[in-house]
Amino acid sequence: MLVDDALKMPFTVFTTSHKKTYLKWHAKLTGEGDKGQQGAAAGGGGKPLTYTVYDLPEGGVTLGLMTDEGDTLELQLAAAGAAAGACEPALLEQIRAAFEAGEDEVRVTLNADRTAVTGLVGAKSS
Distance (Å, rounded) from C-alpha 56 to C-alpha 75? Predict the structure, then answer.
């Protein structure tokens, strides 16, 4: 596997940030990363999936989210005329209002499949 070969290269070829990305890819490709998440979801005692909103384009169709570890996720929002999307319209308006108000951090929770926004955790301002 090409990712395995990239991980074996010295740090003079690929930096630490590159190697972290390759490790994430390796975990996804081999399924190792999913086992821990499935166990936490099945146990029901895991902490909620909380993401920080980093991008919310005006009239856009995607919502840019990031974990505390720096992993990013883009959710597809409902397109014009679509029945359902990753976020309810009323909740999306709350998120947009907090984001556009210039809050330092707007955090949302996602469902276990990471396919839909389930709530607004809150917005913190300094």
Answer: 10
Cα separation, 54 vs 14, in Å, equals 26
In the CATH scheme, what is the code of domain 49-124? Answer: 2.40.50.140
Alpha helices in the chain (DSSP H): 2-8, 16-30, 32-43, 89-100
- Decide: 29 and 7 in contact? Cβ < 8 Å: no
* Range list for CATH 2.40.50.140 in the chain: 49-124
What was the pLDDT predicted at 49? 84
User: pLDDT tens, 44-100?
Assistant: 445 668 888 888 887 767 888 888 888 888 888 765 545 567 788 888 888 888 888
- In sequence order, the 6+-apart residues with CB closer than 8 A to the CB of 11 are 19
**Count of C-beta atoms within a 10 Å radius of residue 67:** 12
Q: What is the pTM (predicted TM-score) of this model? A: 0.56
